[in-house]
Write a structure and sequence with these properties.
The complex is a heterodimer of chains A (267) and B (357).
Chain A: E1 8-19, E2 22-33, E3 37-41, H1 48-56, E4 63-71, E5 74-75, H2 81-87, E6 92-95, H3 99-102, H4 109-121, H5 125-138, H6 144-148, H7 157-169, E7 175-179, H8 187-204, E8 207-211, H9 215-221, E9 224-229, E10 232-238, H10 239-244, H11 249-256, H12 262-265
Parallel strand pairs in A: 3-8, 3-9, 6-7, 7-8
Antiparallel strand pairs in A: 1-2, 1-4, 4-5, 9-10
Chain B: H1 5-18, H2 20-49, H3 54-58, H4 61-65, H5 67-76, H6 83-95, H7 109-144, H8 149-163, H9 166-180, H10 204-210, H11 214-251, H12 254-261, H13 266-303, H14 309-318, H15 322-350, H16 352-356
Helix pairs in contact in B: 2-15, 7-8, 7-11, 7-13, 7-14, 7-15, 8-11, 9-11, 9-13, 10-11, 11-13, 12-13, 13-14, 13-15, 14-15
Bound molecules: adenosine-5'-diphosphate and magnesium ion (MG).
Adenosine-5'-diphosphate is lined by residues 19-20, 24, 42, 44-50, 60 of chain A.
């Protein structure tokens, strides 16, 4: 919707969704750009997660979608399952809310980091292993070589989320959807994860959709901010504009609920 | 990497023992051995608590009247020693494969068991195999096709399997399939005119295959089919239901959605991400179910005249044949032990978290 919408890495247009006859999304518009973090805020139940899942075609049973999700000149919504599976994890990756449950508890970190490399990139075992160690270093897991042999439960929550981010980055995707990646974590490690995402976005030129119900999180890292309410994006724009001069009363009420006004602590 | 081979081989041996899985297995096996000793103690004590007098069961009327003969017999069988010493003698006998002499068949209990145990193992083993294949298979299908026709049909069938009493089913199956329809051969392990295959494992099906006796093999399978299916029906139903709910639960897990988000092929997601974790609760239930399946063999063996441990145990119990009862108790205890060991080991193999803790 902004001036540079021509360079959008991914754009969602008029996305509607009903699950089992119950309307969840009423025409969501969002656009992500390479090298930019797009923050998506809104209270829980407003449809943020469903918007992210719709992009990857992972909606729950009984879902009916319409609209358009444009990626690489194609509409993901109409894409055959087989082709969509080649986009998932390879071109568009997702990080989920709770790293305690989003990693397979019975597989080693190495296995989870490398299994999709084989499918998407066709790299051999040895090369995949080297890449996996490199990825762990990139997300700042200490002792990457040792960490590869371990299982998720042997790591702390923050470390697990870093591993999940490494898994998402393994096939060098263009788009990263992070669904409340810090909500389930201790406050003390949240900032580290956000900084990591910001850094990856800048270094790798990723287009990041950072979903959160926390506008405070948003103000720290997002370039663009969209606010959702009841299945609709009610406000979208550059961070400074949305957070300092909100136009929609709902955004204003969210900002008023924050303990510290977001404009003051952001750099 | 290492300059000489000797230190490197030592290092690999150390590493083998340091591997959590190896340590876990060693720990479990040691525990099982200790429990086996416990079982011998329990069977010994229980048998000695039974209010029966082995002297009067073994000696004739006239011999019983002569105190000298009675005392001699008791001394010969160590019955005049204190119980702990009797237990040690019993253990020593066990180590030499001496389970005593059956008062009924007047043969060593070991020989009796060597005939009846393989018969029951063949029956129960076939039932367990069928239960695992069908129960787990049906459960997975029902879960993947949730709320569709096949799911509903399988759920009704599994409910029937759980509710029908085994002894009734055994009688009905024997009557319908043998007397009425004559599609199954009658009782016993093979056709009456046939000679059993040379004993290697004691399982007729396996021994027949080993000796290339195809006629015996097909006869043995035919005789096995009806009692094994009757015995398996309950566990098939149970496993279908448990597998279904376990798979459904795993299907709703975040990591399954995460696996799809990685773009893994459907079959990888199914086997690696859904079935492997779902098997953990299924294995627990399977272990318990197979325990109850063993007690079902007593009835099924009686109906199908299957010469197994169930029949032997029943006969020994009604005649207070103490050495035989002790032998059967030992066998049953060891079988339960093995089932538990297998369940534990499978846990450790499937779920690495079990090994580490
Ligand atoms: N599996 C589901 N089946 C039916 N409705 C669902 C399901 N998951 C979520 N919803 C509905 O979709 C709406 C949006 O949910 P969600 O996208 O998870 O919200 P958010 O992520 O913003 O908290 C909610 O009102 C919820 O009731
Ligand atoms: Mg959500």
């Amino acid at each position: 919707m902004t001036a540079e919408s021509g360079t959008a890495a991914l754009s969602i247009e008029g996305l509607r969704l009903s699950i089992g006859g119950h309307d969840v999304l009423h025409g969501v518009d969002l656009s992500l750009e390479a090298g930019r973090v797009h923050g998506l805020a809104g209270e829980s139940g407003s449809g943020k997660t469903m918007t992210g899942l719709a992009v990857l075609g992972l909606l729950p049973h009984g879902s009916r979608v319409s609209g358009r999700i444009a990626f690489g000149g194609r509409d993901l919504l109409g894409m055959p399952a087989r082709e969509l599976n080649q986009v998932r994890g390879a071109k568009i990756a997702m990080v989920f809310q709770d790293p305690a449950t989003s990693l397979h508890p019975m597989l080693t970190v190495e296995r989870q980091l490398t299994e999709h490399m084989g499918h998407h990139l066709g790299v051999g075992r040895k090369e995949a292993r080297e890449r996996a160690a490199g990825l762990l270093a990139k997300v700042r897991i200490p002792g990457p070589e040792e960490a590869l042999k371990r299982y998720p439960h042997q790591f702390s929550g923050g470390m697990r989320q870093r591993i999940a981010i490494a898994v998402a980055l393994a096939c060098e995707p263009e788009v990263l959807i992070a669904d409340e990646p810090t909500t389930a974590l201790d406050v003390t490690v949240q900032a580290g994860i956000l900084r990591l995402l910001r850094g990856l976005c800048d270094d790798l030129g990723l287009a990041v959709l950072l979903v959160t119900h926390d506008l405070g999180v948003m103000s720290a890292v997002a370039d663009e901010v969209s606010v959702m309410k009841d299945g609709l994006v009610v406000e979208t724009g550059p961070r400074g504009q949305v957070l300092r001069e909100p136009r929609h009363p709902y955004t204003r009420s969210l900002l008023d609920a924050l303990p510290v006004p977001p404009g003051e602590n952001s750099p | 990497m290492s300059p000489t081979s000797a230190p490197s081989s030592r290092r690999t041996r150390n590493r083998a023992l340091r591997s959590p899985l190896a340590r876990f297995l060693v720990r479990r096996i040691v525990t099982a051995l200790l429990l086996a000793v416990g079982i011998t103690l329990v069977t010994f004590v229980l048998t000695n608590l039974v209010p029966g007098d082995p002297v009067s069961a073994n000696l004739g009327q006239r011999a019983l009247g002569d105190p000298a003969i009675v005392a001699q017999w008791r001394a010969d069988h160590g019955l005049d020693r204190p119980l702990p010493q009797q237990y040690l003698m019993h253990l020593e006998g066990l180590l030499h494969g001496d389970l005593g002499t059956s008062q009924q068949s007047h043969r060593p209990v070991l020989d009796d068991l060597a005939e009846s145990v393989p018969a029951t193992l063949e029956l129960a083993g076939a039932a367990i195999l069928v239960s695992l294949i069908l129960g787990v298979g049906f459960g997975v299908i029902a879960a993947l096709r949730r709320d569709r026709l096949s799911d509903h049909v399988l759920r009704v069938l599994s409910l029937i399997g759980i509710s029908v009493p085994t002894f009734w089913l055994a009688l009905v199956a024997f009557y319908v399939f043998f007397f009425r329809l004559q599609v199954t051969p009658g009782s016993g392990r093979i056709d009456p005119g046939m000679t059993p295959p040379p004993q290697v494992t004691g399982l007729y099906t396996v021994d027949a295959l080993l000796s290339g006796r195809w006629d015996v093999f097909s006869s043995a399978v035919g005789h096995l089919a009806a009692p094994a299916l009757v015995l398996a029906l309950y566990t098939i139903g149970l496993l279908t239901r448990f597998t279904r709910s376990a798979v459904l639960e795993v299907l709703g897990q975040d990591y399954v959605r995460a696996a799809r988000a990685k773009g893994l092929p459907g079959r990888v997601v199914l086997f690696r991400y859904v079935l492997r974790p779902a098997l953990v609760p299924v294995i627990t239930v399977a272990g318990l179910a197979f325990g109850s399946l063993l007690s079902g063999t007593v009835l099924v063996e009686a109906v199908f005249a299957w010469p197994g441990v169930g029949q032997y145990a029943y006969k020994s119990a009604t005649t207070l044949d103490l050495p035989a009862i002790m032998g059967v108790g030992l066998v049953v205890g060891v079988v339960y032990l093995v089932i538990n060991l297998v369940v534990d080991v499978l846990y450790g193999v499937i779920d690495p978290r079990v090994r580490v803790s």
